[in-house]
Amino acid sequence: MSQDNIETLINLLMLLALVVAIFIWWATKHGGVRGRIAERTRQAAVVQRNETALAEEDDDEGSMARFTHRLARLGDRLPLFDAKYRAKLRTQMVRSGYRSQSAVSVLLAIKFVVGLICAAFAVMLGSHIPMVGGYPAVRGAMMLLVFVVGMILPEYVLAFFASRRRKAMASCLPDALDLLVICTNAGNSLGVSIRRVADELKTICPPLSGEFSLTADELKLSGDSTRALQALADRIDLPSIRALIATLTQSMRYGTPITQALRTLSHTERLAHIVSLEEKAAKLAPKMAVPMMLFILPAVMLIAAGPAVIQLISVFAKK
Fold this sequence. Notes:
Structural class: mainly alpha
Number of helices: 11
Distance between the termini: 72 Å
Strand content: under 5%
Number of domains: 2
Number of strands: 0
Largest sheet: none
């Protein structure tokens, strides 16, 4: 058997050992037979709920919908993640704007697939690492490390998009508060005002418009304004939104005018937004120093000193 075939066999055995280790870890984690039965029952309930939600969608959405459906089914059947971790991911997905029933299952499937792909690349390319690539134990440890890192990467990507979404909503919040002040001054109720603001923000800030629309629907259907507003604060997870919800809740509880409270909060948020813009403008000069030194200063020196250097070279060349 050639050396290349031996290396390929070792790589396949490493990947197989990784899969076997994952399932052995799962079997020992969930408390024996009783724990596995409970876990299977929970997975069956999750699979049934997600398949019911996916069956209600349009069947003509195309290949992307079918691919998402397969990912969701894979994520439902993965035994690596317990209910507590799935609930944590559900909160993160809602804050990122993904409210589908199968969003968590799709994310779990992506985490697992990315981890396996990274582990496979680590096994295949690990033998080319100088000095340590020839040891199977080192490649195995590197495979486990890369597998864990590959499973963590999708969460960081999700957190990045969630942070961008929160920044976009925070930048448009002062305008939304001004619109709320105008609507409440016109005599509209809180639910009608939130709905009107959501309609006006559709082209300016779609994420904030979607959150306000959902809150308006909850206010219309449930009638529990405190719970609906608290759900809005939990979904957006911004200090300014929490201050808005606290102001609205206290105004409704103690009977104080909502308009005056909103006007004060709008003025405060507008000042905070202006201060943040001034802070960014003040940080611009130090940030521009390094690019100027690297890219602009050499060109200026070349233009200024170039003719003199050429003349000196010509003078010394004549001598």
